[in-house]
Every structure is written in C-alpha cells, then in structure tokens.
Specification:
650 residues; seven-stranded antiparallel β-sheet; six-stranded antiparallel beta barrel; 9 helices
C-alpha cells in the first residue's frame, strides 16, 4: 500500500520501531499516550489534506470533488463553471380599486410549491394609470420579476404564482398569465468535466473542437452544439452546381425544318419522349442558320429556340445536345454551428400591407378613404379629393367598400380608371349600387401574397390570424398552415439563422391585402452567437460561419401510469429528459418508461404513441410517429411540446 493509505498511528509506530527497536510502544504505556497519540491528532489533518491535494490533481476524480475544488482545477484550462440563470417573466397584481402603488424587491411572489420571485426593478404606478388596466372586476399592474435562485425550478407554467408576501395594501390576488421561463440549472461536476475535455484546445473559431469550446464557454443558454463543415452531407451553403459534360440527346437527323422566327419542326420526332429539356442545345448542321440555338420550349414535334431563325428551310441536318450537372460539389469555406438552447420564446410580427412595396415600387394596399360617392343603380365610384392615377391605381386592382349597403370587394372594369372615377363590377355582373355619398373604401393590389419581415430566426409559426385594417382587432379564426398559408424558404442554407430568407405566403384570394398578425417561436441566442462570431476580434477571415438553431422536432405524447407521483410532478421530468436528448440520439419509448420507474412509478401503459413534427430547412414539416423509437437528422433536436401524463391509480 502507498504510505498515505496507512493509518497514521500505525505509520508512526512502525517508523519508531524501525529506528528505535528498544522503545516500549505498547498500548497504555506513557510513551504511547503522551507522544504517539498527540502526534496522531496533529498529523491526521495534514495527511487528509495531502490526500485531498493528491486527489484534486486529476480531472478524472471529479465525482469526489466539491464544486469549488473542481472549479479551481478546471480554471487551469481556462474553463469556468456555468452558474445557471434566473427565470424571468411578469406577474400581474390585482387590486379592488385603482390606487398609487410602489412594488419593490421586498415583495416576494410564490407558487404553491414555494418557488419564489421578486421584482426585477421597482414598479411605480399611479391610480390614474391603473384605472386603464382592467381585467374582469379588478384593476391590475404587471410587475417584471426574476426568480430568487438560479435553476430550471424557476421556470413555471402560467397561472401557478398565487401568493405575495409583503404585498402593499389593497392586493386581492396575484397571478402569472404567461409562463415564467429562462431558468437554467448551475452546471454539475459531470457536465463541467465533459466541457473541460473539449476545452483543452486553441480558443478560436477554426476547428470543430475549438468552436464548441468557445460557444459553450461564452453562452450559458446553449445546452449543446454541433459543427457542420466542409464535405458534410448537411452543409448546403458551399454546394456549387457546375456543368460537367454535354451529352447527346438526339443524334444527327436530316428531317428538320425552320420558318423565320423561333420555331423548329421535325414531324418524324417526339421531342417529349426523347427527354428534350429547357436549356438543351439545338445544333443546326446545314442551311442558312448553321449554329447553336438554346431550347426555350417544346412540344412533341416542335422546339421553340433562341435566337430566332432568319430563313425558312427543310431537310436540315441537326442534332440536340443535353447537359449533366453535378450538384454536390462542395467548395469549402463555410461552417454552420447548430445549437440547442434554453431561450426559445414567443413573439409576434404584424404584416400591414400599407408598409409593403412591390417590385415596381407600387403600394400594395392603400388605407381606407372616406371620399367616394355612388349613384343609385349605377356602377361608377366617384371621388373628390383622391386621385386614382396619381395613386397608381390600375384596372387589375380591386376596390373594397368597407361599410354600408354597398359593402364588398369589387373588380375594376377594364380601361375605366380616370383621375376621379372608376367603373366597378362584381364577378361578371355589373354592380348596381344603392345611392351613397359617403363611401368608405380602400384599394387592394391583388398580387400581394407574401412578406419578408423577420430579423430573428423563425423556429415555427404558432398562430397566424387576420386583423381588422382599421382597428387592428383580430377577426375570424386562426389560419391553418398548409392550407391557408405556407412558409416559402428562399434559401435552404440560411434557414433557422438570423440571416434566413423566408416569406409567409397567403394564396387564398380572400386574404388579399389583409393585415396579418404572425405569432412565432424565436431564439435570441442564435443572433447573439452570430454577432459574437462576426465581431472583429473573433471572426475567421478564411471562412463564413453561420449560427443556426437546431432543426426543431416538436414532441407530443400521452402516457398513462400508476404510482405515487402526481402528473404535475412527472411531466416536467419527462419534458426535461426529451429536451436534453443529445444530437444524433434517438427518442426511445423504453428510456421514458425506465425514467418513470425510477421515480416511484410502478406501472406504465406501454405502446403509447410518440409523435415528432420535424421542421425541415426547405419549409416542409415531417410528422414522425412511433411506439418504439423516433430518429431525426443529426442537426435536429427534440423539443417537448404536448407531453401529458394521466394517473390511473397509486
């Protein structure tokens, strides 16, 4: 055994016997009681401290170390423990009557489970200001709050904060109408050890290892990241299509004919069956138009080409060449960093067509105008102050009368637009109006269908609804993605980044010119990482690095069980398990069942259905369903959504 593993007293006795064999060192002797035992009391702490120092020299001993001991060790490789983060949000404080109120951090808001929150800053409101805040029978003030301790326990669902200690007079109840989010647990020794292993490297944004070390060190909200670079299958930004070879589609024939213009004919051929395609080359080998022509259209026996032919001829010799394009040539110089974060949040954007401009600089929808008159039985709308021509109104636009007996959307009859009048028609029948000298109308440009409005990555649309163009109040039912609208991705390579190029497209005619409210999930961390990587002191001059959120796969499941814990206790545990499944790993039902059994559950109804909706970079959504396991791409990450547990009994 090593000497430090020996009991101290035995060690001292052995050394004395070795050097002073005539000493009487038996128990109860004066030498033993007056010298050896006091020495044990003095030396034992030194021995223990020596063992601690010895233990703390190796990262491998992290399970045995106190957190401050391990912090000191990993600081040698310039790694700092993530201290976690405080959950934040807003709590609504209700009063019976308006009053002057000051709410400071001395007030503690509590859930039934004792999770505590305090005001992030003092809130001051006057009785006059509170008079404007009414909900039901009470008046209220919203107080921005933070949890009193860091950790995921501070992230609580809506309507769970119900107590207030030290509240001012007049408070009748408190509540949180929205979830309080953003709580992050401090890093454990195990997590810190894993990060330290990847951090012993050059701290720059060049290699995979160093990129991960920098991102995880700089951003507490990043749970995990994965780097995609040159020649990886998932890298889309460095692919360049190139023309590799020309191939012969139709060999030399002698039965072609031309007329002056763009049309080439061969009644003996079937160009469609021969797989002639746009962009192929028609090569004329005889006649006045010898040369190469590009195919711009085709039928079975004719080709439309550019440039046009200058002569009519028949019996022409020709051939048609096609092309082969290699679409997966990676040119390098691009790096994508996909991150799984704890900072997903809801936000919204308003698409107001008055603020949108078309490709020719034309306003797509005008504001409502109260300037029109119509005569009984007529079809002409006449204005006094408005000018249809100066406003660039054309007969392909529509006019919507917003109120009154003539309310509706009307076509403009072809060629009838003057400065002061337009003739209107609804459908094919000419409109017959009721007399009205105060028509309220607006112009609708029919080609309006989409808008690019997002500065933050759109992880997904959660709710899209029309707004009244005058009051901006919600009207009608929420729109359905896939049938009422879809997300057009103009650049697959930048999807889920702060530089993404997407459009919301509304194809149904009834949505033309409508003001839309789009509620969507976004992630501020992705933009923060991009700003960090683009900073002069950090940027890599030989590569383009793009920060992206992991492809989201939103998970739904309903689990029935028997056991002691209540569903509200188990649901956060299951959700956290799903959210922390690592990149490249599968979601397995057996893992969830084992997790539940480890928390005093004695029965789980197996074969429950797991569903994951995977949002792809091209805007499509794949619905993956299984009672066994779900596999997603390695750049995707699971996010728990509708995860519910039903207790069948104890």
């Amino acid at each position: 055994m090593a000497k430090f593993d020996l009991p101290v007293e035995d060690f001292i006795v052995a050394k004395l016997k070795e050097n002073f064999p005539n000493f009487d060192l038996r128990e109860t002797t004066a030498f033993r009681d007056m010298l050896i035992k006091p020495m044990v009391l003095l030396i034992q702490p030194l021995r223990d401290q020596t063992n601690i120092i010895k233990r703390n020299l190796s990262l491998d001993n992290f399970p045995l170390m106190l957190e401050d001991e391990f912090d000191a060790l990993v600081s040698n490789v310039f790694v700092t423990r993530r201290s976690g983060d405080l959950a934040k949000g807003s709590i609504r404080v209700f009063f019976e009557a308006p009053r002057d109120v000051i709410i400071t951090s001395d007030v503690t808001f509590l859930t039934e489970d004792g999770v505590a929150f305090v005001a992030e800053e003092a809130v001051v409101i006057t009785s006059e200001e509170m008079r404007q805040n009414v909900e039901g029978l009470f008046f209220f003030v919203d107080v921005p709050v933070i949890a009193d301790t860091a950790g995921i326990s501070g992230s609580v669902a809506e309507n769970t904060v119900v107590f207030a200690e030290g509240a001012p007079d007049g408070v009748v109840q408190v509540n949180n109408p929205n979830a309080l989010t953003g709580g992050i647990d401090p890093e454990t020794n195990t997590q810190l050890f894993a990060r330290a292993q990847t951090s012993i490297t050059v701290r720059d944004l060049v290699t995979e290892k160093s990129i991960l070390a920098v991102v995880l060190e700089q951003f507490n909200s990043v749970r995990e990241a994965i780097v995609i670079g040159f020649d990886d299958a998932e890298m889309l930004r460095d692919i360049t299509p190139i023309l590799v070879d020309l191939s012969e589609v139709i060999g030399t024939e002698t039965t072609g004919s031309t007329a002056i213009g763009p049309t080439f004919t061969d009644v003996t051929q079937d160009f469609v069956t021969s797989l002639v395609a746009l962009g192929h080359e028609l090569i004329i080998l005889s006649g006045a138009d010898i040369g190469t022509f590009i195919v711009t259209g085709f039928t079975a026996t004719t080709l439309t080409v550019t440039p046009s032919f200058t002569a009519s001829a028949s019996g022409l010799s020709y051939r048609i060449d096609g092309f082969a394009v290699k679409e997966d040539l990676h040119i390098g110089g691009k790096v994508d960093v996909y991150s799984d974060t704890t900072t997903l949040r809801q936000t919204q954007a308003i698409i107001d067509p008055i603020e949108l401009v078309g490709s020719e600089g034309l306003v797509k929808v005008n504001r409502a105008i109260s300037d029109g008159t119509v005569a009984a039985g007529g079809d002409a709308l006449t204005v006094i102050d408005f000018d249809f021509l100066d406003a660039l109104v054309v007969d392909t636009d529509k006019i919507e009368i917003l109120e009154g007996a003539n309310k509706g959307i009307f076509d403009i009859q072809s060629g009838t637009v003057t400065r002061k009048t337009v003739d209107l028609a609804q459908g094919v029948a000419v409109a017959s109006f009721t007399a009205d000298d105060n028509i309220r109308f607006r112009i609708i440009r029919h080609y309006y269908d989409s808008a690019v409005i997002f500065d933050l990555p759109v992880i997904r649309a959660t709710r899209v609804i029309r707004l009244d163009p005058i009051t901006f109040e919600e009207t009608g039912a929420p729109l359905v993605e896939g049938s009422d609208f879809f997300i057009r991705v103009n650049d697959d390579g930048s999807r889920f980044s702060s530089l993404e190029n997407i459009e919301f497209v509304f194809e149904h005619p009834t949505f033309t010119g409508t003001v839309m409210k789009i509620e969507y999930t976004t992630d501020d961390t992705i933009s923060s990482i991009q700003a960090f990587m683009d900073a002069d002191e950090n940027r890599v001059v030989t590569a383009s690095i793009l920060s992206k959120h992991a492809l989201p796969a939103f998970v739904d499941m309903n689990i029935s069980y028997k056991g002691t814990p209540e569903p509200e206790t188990l649901e956060p545990i299951v959700r956290d398990f799903i959210d922390t499944i690592a990149f490249g790993e599968t979601l397995q039902q057996s893992d969830i069942v084992a997790l539940l059994y480890s928390f005093s559950v004695n029965f789980v109804m197996i074969s429950f259905t797991m569903t994951a909706k995977l949002h792809n970079v091209d805007g499509t959504i794949d619905t993956l369903t299984s009672i066994d396991e779900i596999t997603i791409p390695r750049t995707a990450h699971f996010i728990a959504e509708n995860v519910t547990l039903t207790k069948l009994g104890a």
